[in-house]
Structures are given as structure tokens and as C-alpha cells.
Design brief:
With about 270 residues, the protein is mostly helical. The protein has 13 helices and two strands, in the order βααααααααααβααα. The chain has helices at about 5-25, 30-45, 50-60, 65-70, 85-100, 135-150, 155-170, 175-185, 185-190, 195-205, 215-230, 235-250, 255-265; strands spanning about 1-5, 210. It has a two-stranded antiparallel sheet with strand order 1-2. The radius of gyration is 18 Å and the shape is globular. The model has no long low-confidence stretch (mean pLDDT about 85). Bound molecules: fe (ii) ion (FE2) (2 copies). One fe (ii) ion binds near residues 26, 30, 34, 62 and 142.
Amino acid sequence: MLLDVLGLLSACSYALDCVEAELVHVSDKHAKRVAYMSVCMAEQLGISGESLQDLAACALLHDNALTQYIQEELHKDVANVVQASQVGIHCTLGEKNIQRLPFHTDVKNVILYHHENANGSGPFEKTWEEVPLFSRIIHLSDLLDRAYGAKGFTEDIFNKACGYLHKNEGTVVDKECVDAFLRAFPLPHFLTLGEDSFEKNLWEKIPRIKQELSFAQIEELASFFAQIVDYKSPFTNLFCHIMQLYICKKSRQTLLPGLMLFYKVY
Ligand SMILES: [Fe+2]
Ligand SMILES: [Fe+2]
């Protein structure tokens, strides 16, 4: 069965952004902007094709378990986070969740290490040499968007972002990624991050080609959505899981309309 997997994941990331905006105040379209920044940086490092598609999927879903973590561990109180190691909980949950998705390449540990700092001061105390390149790219993009995304992408913010990168090179972010970001985003390109057009540019770089999935892969995809989308409400989460199991057992034909309905809603 042919499915626009990236389109579905993008819709999912938007839904998660809306919840996160309420809980941890990320900026509008945070995950999509992190994906766009990540893809542009990766191109500078010679990454293309299916690897670039997988990077985009990981970036879109880098915080797929954040809502789950806030609900389960913090009981909605984000001020409860006091140690770096606690941040790692949503990385572990998120890494486990995405193992259900049909990636083209090996993305092992990309989500697990997306908060690691270059000098090993992150949640799992890994230095940049021990962390996959995709994690390091997503880490830098995420940091910049969380710090500056809500403030707008102006020349003043550009100067502040460059200053932040130079100041934290080798401690928070690594040189390879800093150089890639600065090459990918000279001022005129940086300014476009505040425009709606960046999303169109993302899909131009990452064509949403439909993937042929087996029924087992579609079932895993449905489980992934059931696992993360309804975490804000235990009732709807349980309902979603039951429905997903029922649909999978009952009919192979009814699963696709269910997924497409989800896609249209978001
Ligand atoms: Fe995160
Ligand atoms: Fe994020």
C-alpha cells in the first residue's frame, strides 16, 4: 500500500507542537522549522536522498515523547525538571517510539542523543564524537529555535544567534555543525525562517514521495500514532489503542481511511 509517510509524520508533528506550545511554550511550527534548519545544514555536509528524508522525519519527531514525559513524570509541572538526566527520559521514550516507523536508513540513537552537549554535559554525558551526526544537527537547530523562534527572525536575532553559536562552540554545540549552520544560513536565508514559505522550501528539498508499506508496517505506524498523539487524555489514548487493535484485526481496508482522516484533521 502506498502512503505519504512524511506527510503523516509532519501532520503528527504539528499536533505535538500545538500541545507543546501550551505546556512548554515552543514557537509556532517549531518542529517543522527544526526539520528545515536540519535539512539545510545536512545538505552542507553532503547528505542527500533517503538519508535526508530520514533526518527530516527524526527532526519533525525529535520531541515525540515530550508530552508523554510531561504527563507521566512531571504531572504537567515542567518546573519539576531540575537535572539534565531527567531531560533524558523523553529522549529514551522517544527513541523507543520511533522504532515503529519505516525509516530507509539506520537512525539508531538519533532521538536518544538529541540533547547531548558537545562537551559531554548533556543527559547521557556523551561527547560530540560519541553522538550521531543527525542528533548533533537536530540539537543545534532545536536550541536556536527554542531560544529565538518566538522572537522573530530579524537581523538583530541573526547576530545574536551567530554570537551564541561562536560562544558555545565546543561546549554545547560542535564545530562541524556550527560551520554547517553558518554556511547554510547567511543573513538573507536566515530571515526566511520567519516566513511561511520555509515550509514550502522544506518539501521542495524533501519530496513527499509515497512509500510502499506492508500491512505490518502500517500497523506499526498506527500504533505509533496511538502511542503519542492522545497522551494528553488517558481516556482518548485508551480508546485510540483499542480502536487501532480492533481495526487491524477486523479489516485491512479500514485502516487506511482512518490514517487519512487523521491526516486531514491535522
Ligand atoms: Fe527534546
Ligand atoms: Fe524541540
